[in-house]
Design a protein that fits this description.
Helix content of chain A: 25-40%
Number of strands of chain A: 5
Shape of chain A: globular
Structural class of chain B: alpha/beta
Distance between the termini of chain A: 8 Å
Number of helices of chain A: 3
Strand content of chain A: 15-25%
Largest sheet of chain A: 3 strands, antiparallel
Strand order of the largest sheet of chain B: 7-6-5-4-3-2-1-8-9
Oligomer: heterodimer
Shape of chain B: globular
Radius of gyration of chain A: 13 Å
Largest interface: A-B, 22 and 23 residues
Number of helices of chain B: 13
Order of helices and strands of chain A: EEEEHHHE
Chain lengths: ~100, ~350
């Protein structure tokens, strides 16, 4: 089991989790979720925050998609994959093989 | 008006190191009357109320504050992301475990080079071994680690070994930031400013390391602004994203702004909210109305905000001028002359650094 490099795609069996230097938080002043990092802050929309809340290193991407589809009507699996690949490239999440 | 995201809390200017590029004020008179624990706790609560999400606990050496654990505890209760910026001197196992338990999110350790002799020479004191021990302790306790290396003429040629050291230490991030020329670094500028040849050698080393370490370690590399066409967007804009509180409670839009001829503001006299939104100090260079030409009509005025006010003041005597780093600045020759000298001077290590005197009490 190893951490993928940025070139890899996100597989349905992959296990994403927040990188150790990143914390998911709610910003009460601006009324939105944020990713807090040592030198940056990433503002999140509702869907992004919902995805990241499920990235605990135990759920697979397929399970995350299924849970989101229960909660929201329109969640496309490929959009979740794209989002995770993009955010993994920035090292906000780490993706290990399932 | 924008609300701040980050607070740089300079808890003390006392420090066991005496780096020749120290960014603390040159004149430390008046900073020994440090804010008390309760005053810092009030500052953090006011900052959180104002919108702050990130707290950088810095100095000097923040570990010299006996109340550091208590301050981290308060910050975490307020929901702030806490980042300790340290030399790692004074990071005992007991202290580290207490900070971990209090919820400190992230540790940034400064290292001056990849090996003991150079690192100790630049830090002005034997410290390399303790720094490495500190980094290993940080990783052992499961913290994310950033290794921070200030780059300059005397260590930039070792950048490959520095990257490998950070990799061996298991760092999550490395910040390779070229010196910014204020304070003591300004005094030592000729001995610190790298040559163009040195930068050209460093660039491919950094690019190769980024490819090699992708997904494992983030490599942040900051060029010296003297070699840039455009100035840095200093602090992401004056009084726009973050502010600094000095050890004595002075509040500043950037950590070097105490050099500017502007009125002083202190958390001992006013609320942070008033200082951020209303004080003349914070209003003076906010937005774009204050800008001179060529900034006023420049397409980049919302990108680099006219550059750094402290650098403009240091180089021209007027903080409202365009940062002379910009090739469009009428004062650019000042920077061009320094760059020219850096490319004529003797070999990199022949110039002597003037260490900053120790102040540990």
């Amino acid at each position: 089991m190893g951490i993928r490099t940025v070139e890899s795609s996100v597989e349905t069996a992959s296990l994403p989790k927040l990188a150790p230097h990143v914390r998911l938080s709610f910003d009460p002043t601006r009324d939105r979720h944020v990713l807090l990092c040592p030198e940056t802050i990433v503002a999140l929309n509702t869907t992004s925050a919902a995805i990241l809340q499920l990235c605990d290193g135990r759920r697979t991407v397929a399970e995350i998609v299924a849970e989101l589809q229960e909660r929201y009507e329109q969640v496309a699996a490929d959009e979740v994959h794209t989002f995770l690949a993009r955010i993994a490239a920035k090292h906000y999440v780490e993706i290990t093989d399932g | 008006m924008d609300r701040p995201f980050g607070l740089l809390a300079e808890l003390t200017y006392r420090c066991p190191l005496s780096c020749a590029y120290c960014s603390n004020p040159v004149n430390l008179t008046g900073y020994s009357d440090e804010l008390t624990t309760m005053e810092w706790q009030r500052v953090m609560a006011e900052a959180q109320e104002l919108g702050v999400l990130q707290l950088h606990l810095s100095g000097g050496e923040p570990l010299l504050r006996p109340d550091l654990v208590e301050l981290v505890d308060t910050a975490r209760q307020l929901g702030l992301y806490t980042n300790l910026v340290t030399s790692a001197l004074g990071l005992s196992r007991r202290r580290a475990e207490e900070l971990r338990a209090a919820g400190l999110d992230h540790v940034q350790v400064s290292v001056q080079a990849d090996e003991q002799a150079t690192s100790d020479r630049i830090a002005g004191t034997p410290s390399f071994k303790r720094k490495i021990d500190g980094c290993q302790l940080v990783k052992e306790l499961g913290w994310p680690l950033t290794v921070n290396v200030v780059l300059h003429r005397q260590n930039i040629d070792r950048i490959d070994a520095v990257l490998r050291l950070a990799e061996e230490l298991g760092a999550d991030r490395i910040e390779l930031a070229n010196t910014q020329y204020y304070g003591w670094a300004w005094r030592n500028r000729d001995a610190l400013l790298p040559s163009r040849a040195q930068l050209e050698q460093a660039e491919p080393v950094v690019s190769a390391a980024r490819r090699r370490l992708a997904g494992r370690m983030d490599v942040i590399y900051v060029l010296p602004d003297y070699y840039s066409r455009y100035p840095k967007p200093c602090m992401g804009g004056w009084a726009k994203r973050q502010f600094t509180v000095a050890p004595n409670g002075d509040v500043l839009p950037c950590p070097a702004a105490q050099t500017l001829p502007l009125p002083r503001e202190s958390v001992r006299e006013e609320s942070l909210a008033w200082i951020w939104t209303r004080s003349p100090l914070f209003q003076s260079f906010r937005g774009t109305d204050w800008m001179p030409q060529p900034c006023q009509s420049c397409d980049r005025r919302e990108i680099d905000f006219g550059g750094c006010r402290c650098q403009a003041f240091l180089l021209t005597g007027d903080p409202a001028r365009t940062d002379p780093v910009c090739h469009l600045s009428p004062d650019h020759h000042i920077v061009a002359d320094a760059v020219r000298a850096a490319n004529e001077d003797p070999a990199p290590t022949e110039l002597t650094l003037i260490p900053r005197p120790h102040q540990v009490r």
